[in-house]
Amino acid sequence: MWKRDCHTAAKYRMQRYDQTHMEPDFKEGNQVLVSTLTFNNLKGPKKMRDSFLGPFITIKLIEKDEVEFPFRKKTTTQPDIVELEHSPGPAKKIIKARKIRLNGKDQRQYLVRFKIQTKDKGKWLQGDARTDGNLHLRKFRASRRTYQYDQ
Fold this sequence. Notes:
This protein is of the alpha+beta class. The protein has two helices and nine strands, in the order αβββββββββα.
């Protein structure tokens, strides 16, 4: 009886794995982003962190079930939490601003939305790392100064 139950459980597990598992869309030597779920040494509030870190260069794929990176501690990870890096394209608009403390210094970061990507793909960038930063920053500050009254 228990052998039959174990057999059906193993069969179900393999079926679920085949349905949900995707082939990695990156190759050896590509630059990829790794999900922050695997990093337990990141500091700061969880909602302020980016969902992916990187770019990192993949060293090799191990039988399509693991990816090897040049990390010091955990060198392999599963490809489900790895995403191929795409260049975001030109900035479209600055949505929000925040001040964070990095290495004992206050720094400004801006949530930037890019032209080609969807709304949920915005990134928090440092004040000096933006493309066309001055133009978008002027527009952002002007939009915060103008008040819209309900009619």
